[in-house]
Amino acid sequence: MKIALAQLNYHVGNFEANSQKIIAAIHDAEKQNAELIVFSELCICGYPSRDFLEFDDFIAQCTNALNEIAKHTSKIAALVGCPRKNPIKEGKDLFNSAFFLYEGEVKHITDKTLLPVYDVFDELRYFEPNNKFEVFEFKGQKLAITICEDIWNVGNDNPMYLSCPMEELVKQSPDIILNLSASPFSYIQHEERMKVIRANVLRYKIPMVYINQVGAQTELIFDGGSVVVNAKGEVTEQLKFFEEEIRIADCGLENADLKSEIALIHDALVLGIRDYFAKLGFKKAILGLSGGIDSALVLYLAAEALGKENVMSLLLPSGFSSDHSLADAKQLCENLGTKYETVPIENNYQGFIQALNPFFKDLPFNVAEENLQARVRGVLLMAFSNKFGYILLNTTTKSEAAVGYGTLYGDMCGGLAVLGDVYKTQVYELANYINTSSALRAPSPKGEGNTTPLIPQNIISKPPSAELRPNQKDSDSLPEYDVLDKILFQYIEKRKGPKELMALGFDKKLVDRVLKMVNGSEWKRNQAPPILRVSPKAFGMGRRMNIEGKYLG
Amino acid sequence: MKIALAQLNYHVGNFEANSQKIIAAIHDAEKQNAELIVFSELCICGYPSRDFLEFDDFIAQCTNALNEIAKHTSKIAALVGCPRKNPIKEGKDLFNSAFFLYEGEVKHITDKTLLPVYDVFDELRYFEPNNKFEVFEFKGQKLAITICEDIWNVGNDNPMYLSCPMEELVKQSPDIILNLSASPFSYIQHEERMKVIRANVLRYKIPMVYINQVGAQTELIFDGGSVVVNAKGEVTEQLKFFEEEIRIADCGLENADLKSEIALIHDALVLGIRDYFAKLGFKKAILGLSGGIDSALVLYLAAEALGKENVMSLLLPSGFSSDHSLADAKQLCENLGTKYETVPIENNYQGFIQALNPFFKDLPFNVAEENLQARVRGVLLMAFSNKFGYILLNTTTKSEAAVGYGTLYGDMCGGLAVLGDVYKTQVYELANYINTSSALRAPSPKGEGNTTPLIPQNIISKPPSAELRPNQKDSDSLPEYDVLDKILFQYIEKRKGPKELMALGFDKKLVDRVLKMVNGSEWKRNQAPPILRVSPKAFGMGRRMNIEGKYLG
After folding, report:
1. Do B230 and B300 reside in the same domain of the chain?
2. Cβ distance B268 to B185 under 8 Å?
3. Whose CA is closest to B10, among B107, B76, B80, B89?
4. Which of A213, A298, B167, B517 is surrounded by the fewest CB atoms within 10 Å?
5. Is the pLDDT of residue A449 over 90?
6. Does residue A501 sit within a domain?
7. Is residue B83 part of a domain?
8. Where residue A244 sits, what CATH number does that domain have?
9. Is B157 on the interface with A (CB under 8 A)?
């Protein structure tokens, strides 16, 4: 059977746009003589629809769109994801379902069995799990239809679940597994996904067609990368990452051109920025460019995502800014061809110092004055944002967000935190990757040895500093990032407590200090902009902590 | 049997403080000859512990504390809530359990069966549901031990659940139901709770001892109000609301002294502020006092919660502030006996206008300049906060938060949003309640007719205004609050879509406008301070929406 894989970018709740996209894909596949086109999980409303699912009106719109789409399936079948009302009173009100449409009507419905509730997933909040299993026969082929998590309990080996849909379906001798997914990116996700897909096809000895959503929904970035894997575990079709694609699966083996982890993170961040703007209807971004590596990286990524003509930088020097900061920032804008303006903050800063003088009197310079500088910058950036319609991009890294190294309403301002799930050590890796790959794309006419790095080397090599007091370095307040990031990774990604961290060789004092900083910053992170998720455990919707919890605090 | 009800205020993750409190209560009850003392759900770690529960080290500390507490039960039994490891591999790693401790050891364990996943609850994220049911006999009495939600499916009539613990337990002829709860306040919660408790005792014809947690955990405010209800449905013990209490249940009928809805909201907000400060280790609050009703109400509540000596107001007049604003604000501070300082914002505002002039040129005054004023105020308040250690209280109401009427990083600054779940119409009710009840508490020596209202009448009667441009009124940008709040209530609390709202008699244009404002403000609310929850559907952890969703946007 000729099956089309539709890997598309949906907009949550935009029924018109999603339906048009789905209908166009159906016609496209029909022209290419496909017999069935398979879409991703909950494609009609977009994934995740979150608490919109609690509105009867929202569900009614899903059903209307489904009926409209069904009309276009007279010659080709379509398998689409859509929520449906639970017909019985007991249990949650909805199922997370896949509708098999053909000859203008619904021929079969499959409900999702394994509903994830961990990290960023909340599916049991909305959906009742399925417990009936039935393969569906179409044109002589028995289809085992599964939805995302349904294939993630291979042979009942995932301790999170008590049932396994494929163990039930295999009793009915299916010919092929179809899986409709909405599986968000993290830098380990593709590997995990391929392990699970291979384990399924090898166990059940039938091929799998796996369709994933693509596109970002604020924090969550769906990477696509849909595949067809044959019964021997070989990838016979590999769709693109981070791009829409419709592929007819009838060709031979094609090896996947897999990118490095850091290249995938790069692509994910670019898509994350692009979709945030596209889906909210914005065009132009602004950011504060300090001459440091974090804002340099965000500027580069924003220019990639939105076009260099749509990204504006403000250079906001203070009395504590070093000479090279301005020069490096300007050099970067020239390299990238992006606009910038310079707005010195000294006058506004001194204006506040004067206004506060009757109260602060001769109390010593401290964090109040440091934060004041960051907040003056925030006010200026937001004024440009309000006047000219720019969206402010935040440049905080995961390392800084973790330990609370940043000023709330100052450098923590912004509509989107581009690097909030990228550790400082990964920021350097990304910068070097960009310089290398941009050099490869545009070699100097005089040969490779002569290429100027896109991100000036000085930005990469200087020691990190917030420049809020004379000769300040990040290392005055924080451990060196290479040590800090390792502790943070074990605590945040691996949930290791103090004793386990010491067993890994970290010093007790250092561990106590770092954990205290992380737990004592929940109140700050609570007001941070949404963060593009690229790791298996990001700050944001997937990590739910108490602000006033005392544990290790 | 003499049973002690321990209604206590726990601090999430503060094992030392929680254990000491539990042990002291055990000794106290023992002295009063109680045979059993019952604590609330998950009292050892505090509820909700959220993702701390994913740390093995956190669970190990729970177990250590449990073992320590058990040592104090040689003469009196104690029933305490504590998570426990799931001994089998399949399913979630933990149970939400109640441990029956006696003679220094664990005599019986009950695991929670019904695990809520809706609104603010996430229990299936962490816990495996129980499916074994066993009454426990102690001193000749058969105890049906249940945990919170376990009693909320009376006779299997709650469509959310497929099982009913009491229907199973009743087969073993229990003498009494014990329920360990952590049931957060909303203004309808006590009524709902009493309905459920009465339905249980009347159906099973045995009494219930119901123990609830008290105290706030950032957004969630636990109101206590524990009860003993006899088999006829009569309340024989009613513990206090919003206060700790240990009560020995062996006395006769005592009628509950129930307060009005608005009085309960008042008490909840005071406790919410007090516990936020106490549990984070803060003492002093600051806020911007505009002369309007929202900040007036927050000042009063903060003075109640923290003591008038710990609350500081800044009066931050601009060129657009009306004369009465300053006078009314000063009068209020005098009535309450709280400190204030005046810091005019005009110079700093003009400083920014000058700095921005090369870019803004002669573009007309708009939201950029309005927001600038709010942000200058934010910077000044945060400077006081940083220099003197005040926590900034936010004064945004639920009506404003809903429609995005506020300036991010300006009047949306703050550590805690006191009124973020209180509609503007309820703000007026609260102010009138405070004026009435404070007049009752401190009658004028010359008789009732002569009392001066605590909150000056002018603050209550003037039309609401942000005062960010000449003669501005909230009603320039928003529908009148009495209409707006009704639409918001139906959309937010009742999840009614546009058609349903029109069926309720609201104008189509108005509905479209309001819903667009609400859905278009998710990005703003995403960075708002945590909100004290007093309604059944508050902004915050219990309402999970897409920032870039398009539905009704």
Report:
1. no
2. yes
3. B80
4. B167
5. no
6. no
7. yes
8. 3.60.110.10
9. no
Determine how β-strand A311-315 pairs with β-strand A285-288.
Answer: parallel
CB contact under 8 A, B496 and A375: no
Domain that holds residue B188: 3-258
Distance separating alpha carbons of residues A220 and A239, to the nearest angstrom: 20
Report CB contact under 8 Å: B54, A495.
yes
Mean pLDDT of B140-148: 97
Residue of B nearest to A365 (CA): B387
Whether residues B50 and B195 share a domain: the answer is yes
What's the rounded Cα separation, in Å, for the pair B524 and B402? 10
Q: What is the pLDDT of residue B358?
A: 97
- A272 and A254 within one domain: no
Q: Does the CA dihedral A495-A498-A500-A501 come out positive or negative?
A: positive
Query: Residue A471 region, left (φ>0) first, then alpha (ψ -120 to 50), else beta?
Result: left
pLDDT of the residue at A121:
96
Do A343 and A253 lie in one domain? The reply is no
Which domain-ending residue is among A444, A459, A474? A474
User: Which two three-digit tokens encode residue B99?
Assistant: 């441990």
Size of interface A-B (CB pairs under 8 A): 269
Tell me how far the alpha carbon of residue A545 is from its chain's centroid: 20
Query: Given a cut of 60, is residue B42 above it in pLDDT?
Result: yes
Q: Give the pLDDT confidence of B9-35 residue by residue, as tens digits.
A: 999 999 999 999 999 999 999 999 999
Structure confidence at residue A471 (pLDDT): 86
Where residue B327 sits, what CATH number does that domain have?
3.40.50.620
What pLDDT is attached to residue B442? 59
pLDDT at B447 over 80: no
* A295 and A397 co-located in one domain: yes
Q: Is the pLDDT of residue A90 over 90?
A: no
**Distance between terminal CA atoms of chain A?**
59
ipTM of the complex: 0.91
Is B292 found in the same domain as B235? no
- What are the contacts of B202-206 at 24+ separation with CB within 8 A? B202/B231, B202/B232, B202/B233, B203/B154, B203/B155, B203/B166, B204/B144, B204/B166, B204/B170, B204/B174, B204/B177, B205/B231, B206/B144, B206/B174, B206/B175, B206/B176, B206/B177, B206/B231
Residue of B nearest to A501 (CA): B57
User: Residue A253: is its pLDDT beyond 90?
Assistant: no
Listing DSSP states for A228-296 in one string gives EE-TTS-EEEEPPBSS-EEEEE-S------PPPHHHHHHHHHHHHHHHHHHHHT---EEEE--SSHHHH
Residues A515/A478, Cβ–Cβ less than 8 Å: no
Q: Which residues 413-442 of B have a C-beta within 8 angstroms of A?
A: 413, 415
Q: Give mean pLDDT, residues A343-372.
A: 97
What's the length of chain A? 553
Q: Is A494 part of any domain?
A: no
- Do both B254 and B401 map to the same domain? no
Write down the pTM of the prediction.
0.92
Residue A518 and residue B521: Cα distance in Å, rounded?
29
- Pair (A158, A270) in one structural domain: no
Q: How many domains does chain B have?
A: 2
Paired with A216 in beta bridges are A221
Tell me: the pLDDT tens digits for A383-411? 999 999 999 999 999 999 999 999 999 99
Residue A420: in which H helix or E strand, if any? none
Residue A188 contacts B where some CB pair is shorter than 8 Å = no
3-state secondary structure of B71: coil
**Which residue in B43, B45, B62, B112 is the catalytic one?**
B112
3 state SS of B95:
strand
Mean predicted lDDT score pLDDT of chain B: 94
Crossing angle of helices A323-336/A293-306, nearest 10°? 20
| Amino acid code (one letter) for B237 | E
Residue B548 lies in a domain: no
For A157-171, the pLDDT digits (tens) are: 888 888 899 999 999
Task: Provide the pairing of β-strand A245-249 with A3-7.
Answer: antiparallel
Residue B525 has which token pair?
């609310």
Q: Quick one: pLDDT at residue B466?
A: 87
